[in-house]
Structure formats: structure tokens, C-alpha cells
Amino acid sequence: MIANKHFWTTLNKYGCVPRKSLILKFPEKEIFASKDLLRHFIRGYFDGDGCFSRNIHTYIVSPIIGLLGTKEFLEEVLAISDIKAKYTHDKRHSENTFLLSYSKDDGILFINYLYNNSSIYLNRKYRLFEFFKNGSRSVEEFAELLSGNIGRAPEMGNTEINSETKESESSYSVEVETT
Q: How many CA atoms lie within 13 A of 8 on its CB side?
């Protein structure tokens, strides 16, 4: 929630509007100082509107990576990442919502593209990246990962406070990540 009118107006001016996922267009590439910043932008978007899922085959768990957005936005993500994905209309959310799905090896390529050598990310999703980054894993390893706080609803104790948050508690803001 933003209570400062100037801050709210400024964010709106730059396209950060309420329910933006239903209308968002990819920004002009010229605003990025270098081409490498595009993947960082996409990772930030993925942390907000993307998801990790899994496909379980016997004793192996393979990642399925999903990204929701407008058709125009997701077409740009496909073109920039140049990684094969399944593109579908997702009417469950709205008429304007589409889904990019990356599975198995393409999912691994996509999450490595997003998270390798990155220092800013949503910890919860980064832990799943760490789990899947080298390929599919065993069902036992996946069950062990899920036995922690990851994937639990907030009311079940999935409040994550990272080291940056703990250090900033003495300042004016505290960031708390929840699922």
C-alpha cells in the first residue's frame, strides 16, 4: 500500500499502475542502459507474476516454469530470452491474460537465464532455482525442500526475513516476503 500521493503519482507515470499485469506492455528497450539489464527486468517480473511448478515422473521431479502476462509482454520475453516455451491463452484470470510455460530442459535454461550471477531476487523463488538449476531432481529431495517453510501459506508460517531485512529493521522500512 502506498500512502504518499506524490510517490503514487510518480509510479503511475512510469506505468506502475494498479492491476498492471492485465494491461502491461514491455518497456521500450532503449530505456535499459545495457542489453544485460533486460534479463534482470524479466526476473523481477517473474518474481511477481511467475511461478515454479513441478512435473513428477516416477522418481524424478522436473521444473515447470510459468509466466503470466499480456500477449504483447510475453511475446517480448520469448524474443529476448530465445528459449522455447509453450504459449497459451489463460482465461482463468482475464481475457487479456496469457501464459508462457517452460518445461524440463527449457525450464532449466530459462531459470538459469534469469538467476545466474544475480544478486537481487525473491528468496523463495531463488531457493527453487537453486534446487532445479542443474536439472531434474529426485522426489525425495523435493519432499525435503517442501518440508521447510517454502510453499506454505502465510498462516502456516511462511514469513521469510532475509539478512537485508534484518539489517534494515532499525531504519524506516522492513520488507517481509510471503507466499
A: 6
Domains of the chain: 21-139 (3.10.28.10), 148-179 (no CATH)
Phi and psi at residue 173, in whole multiples of 5°?
Answer: -140, 150
Under a CB-based contact definition with an 8 Å cutoff, are residues 99 and 107 in contact?
A: no
Q: Note the residue count of the chain.
A: 179
- Tell me the pLDDT tens digit for each residue of 66-112: 998 999 999 999 999 999 999 888 877 777 889 999 988 899 999 99
Amino acid at 105: D
85 closest CA partner among 95, 72, 75: 75
Say if CB 166 and CB 174 are below 8 A apart.
no
Answer for the pair 90, 97: CB distance below 8 angstroms, yes or no.
yes
Which residues, in sequence order, are CB contacts of 15 under 8 Å at separation 6+? 24, 27
- Pair 174, 168: CB distance under 8 Å: yes
Retrieve residue 169's grid coordinates: 529493521
Q: How many CB atoms lie within 10 A of CB 14?
A: 9
Q: Answer for the pair 77, 42: CB distance below 8 angstroms, yes or no.
A: yes
The pTM for the full model equals 0.71
